[in-house]
Write a structure and sequence with these properties.
Layout lengths: L4 E4 L8 E4 L11 H6 L19 H5 L3 H13 L14 H10 L4 H30 L12 E6 L11 E6 L2 E7 L2
Antiparallel strand pairs: 1-2, 3-5, 4-5
Helix pairs in contact: 3-4
Length: 181
């Protein structure tokens, strides 16, 4: 197997980046546009190189080494990379900017859309939960319309009568309530 290494000059002078052009990850679909930029696919402008035969892609597009390494990690691992990161939402803007500069990536766009839809869904669930709490308070703090009388007890609600119902456990005690008359 021939060793075919691509040397990429970094924009921020933090040293070069080397890519093994025989790597399997370069054949996955999310890397399609990137292959054009580094000259692995025909039908696109030949990549710029300097006198040292270093690809000047990052320099030409003012992409920092750290932003590009983040991009490469996504190209290699896909959305699975976010599973090992505590706060992926902190790196997504940088990754998205670099990815967009290098032709975009449908898989990243789909991941970002999934996150947005989850946030919308979570927000709707929280709003529904809030409405439910307003109309079905489980403790005195939730009873903003003062519709119920609440008591905190350790005894079963049967001793207070049928109009009382258990609502929420609070440590070893239970909130019970009944409608105000």
């Amino acid at each position: 197997m021939d060793i075919n290494i691509l040397k990429i000059k970094t924009f921020d002078e933090e040293g070069n980046i080397f890519i093994d052009l025989n790597s399997k990850w370069l054949s996955n679909d999310r890397v399609r546009m990137f292959r054009y930029f580094i000259g692995l696919e025909s039908g696109f402008k030949k990549p710029n190189v300097n006198d040292n035969n270093e690809l000047t892609l990052l320099e030409d597009n003012k992409i920092t080494k750290s932003a590009f390494l983040l991009f490469l990690t996504f190209m290699r691992c896909g959305p699975a990379m976010f599973e090992s990161i505590e706060s992926p939402e902190e790196i997504i803007p940088s990754l998205l900017m670099t990815t967009n500069q290098l032709g975009g990536c449908d898989e990243l766009d789909d991941y970002i859309n999934m996150i947005a839809l989850k946030k919308i869904s979570d927000k709707k669930k929280n709003e529904e939960r809030q409405k439910l709490m307003e109309h079905n308070p489980l403790c005195p703090e939730d009873d903003i319309h003062h519709e119920y009388i609440f008591k905190l007890t350790t005894i079963n609600n049967e001793r207070f009568g049928d109009e009382w119902e258990e609502t929420k456990q609070n440590d070893h005690l239970i909130w019970i309530r009944k409608k105000r008359e």
